[in-house]
Amino acid sequence: MKRLPILFTIILAFILYSCGKEADDMKKAFESMEKIADAGKNIEAESKLADVRKKERISRGDTLAMPYQELQKFLPASISGYTAEEPEGTSFNMPPMSYSQAVCKYVAPGTNGGDNYVTVTLLDYNQAGDMYVGLTALWQIGFSTETKDRMEKTFSPGFDNVSGYESLDKNNKRATVNYGIAWRFFLTVEAGNQTSTDFVKSVANSIDIKKLSGM
């Protein structure tokens, strides 16, 4: 796979950057090489599965990303305690690349949405697989980190062929969850005024993830 050396470089650079240049930190970075190798194997396996699913879609004539109008139908019609604004969307087709995006913002009544908001974004990377892999590559490490200001980690959302990544900006009370769905769709839910990622996960799970993962 031509993309693997690039991904190894990205992952190694990320770890070295995180660890810094102190001797002990450098030692930890090199001790992580085995984990990098395992991540590389996972990435290669994921790439093969992505290729299989892509060929399946092509065989049934599914060669373009879903029109954003159709993608919008998967967004929550409503979220308890919030009012939906007008959804937005974009479709991009330039063979062999094709992707689309649907976005909707939900605002708590009586506020300007500066803090009390939820934003749901769903992307279809049907014919832009490298973009999808680029977004989810580091997840194969099983990354996690937490400080007094921020928390980030990978997790299993509990659906077949779906991986997850969550983060919490503790200072700004901003929670985000990302789902990589069946090597095609990428879902992001972000919300303000949050002290954990529980709420954004519940919003993400209100979407028909099972149907998306079968496409």
Radius of gyration: 18 Å
The named CATH superfamily: PknH-like extracellular domain
Q: Which CATH architecture is right? A: 3-Layer(aba) Sandwich
Strand proportion, as a percent range, falls in 25-35%
**CATH classification, class level:** Alpha Beta
Helix content: 25-40%
Largest sheet entry: 9 strands, antiparallel
H and E string: HHHHEEEEHEEEEEHH
Query: How many helical stretches?
Result: 7
Number of strands: 9
Low-pLDDT residue intervals, each spanning 5 or more residues: 1-6
The average pLDDT value, as a whole number, equals 81
- The total tally of domains equals 1
Structural class: alpha+beta
Present the secondary structure layout:
Layout: H1 3-19, H2 23-31, H3 33-59, H4 68-72, E1 83-84, E2 88-94, E3 97-107, E4 117-124, H5 129-136, E5 144-146, E6 150-155, E7 162-169, E8 174-181, E9 185-191, H6 198-205, H7 209-213
Antiparallel strand pairs: 1-3, 2-3, 3-4, 4-9, 5-6, 6-7, 7-8, 8-9
Helix pairs in contact: 1-2, 1-3
Describe the structure.
The protein is an alpha+beta fold. The protein has a single domain (63-213), classed as PknH-like extracellular domain (Protein Transport Mog1p, Chain A). Helices cover 37% and strands 28% of the residues. The chain has helices at residues 3-19, 23-31, 33-59, 68-72, 129-136, 198-205, 209-213, and strands at residues 83-84, 88-94, 97-107, 117-124, 144-146, 150-155, 162-169, 174-181, 185-191. Strands 1, 2, 3, 4, 5, 6, 7, 8 and 9 form a nine-stranded antiparallel β-sheet that branches. A hairpin with a 2-residue loop joins strand 2 (88-94) and strand 3. Helix 1 runs antiparallel to helix 2. The longest helix has 27 residues, at 33-59. The protein is globular. The model is unreliable at 1-6 (pLDDT under 50).
